[in-house]
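Lab notes, practical 5.
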Amino acid sequence: MGEDQSEIKAAAFELLKQEIELPALEEHFDEEKAIRFIANAIGELLNRDFERLLQICYRIDLGEEKLKTILYKSEPDQIALDLARALWERHKQKAEIRRKYS
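Output from the prediction step:
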């Protein structure tokens, strides 16, 4: 993985960390660990504050169709992970665009 991709992934995690109010990762940064970490937080929001989760998805500009697809077509035990991956990919796009145009 190139240095640019590492920077983009780290920036994506920082953006998501702010949106979902995640604590810092204690371990070395790894994309799959970050996604699982985010999925745990999303699982909590799914169970306790669904409205806030929807607001976060709206602010992140996930896309209504993508959100509906995940919520209605993913297996129940996969929703948090699928949503985490979608949010992760969206934030990588945002980080890449910011890096490109800054």
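Observations recorded by the TA: Residues 3-101 form one domain. The chain has five helices and no strands.
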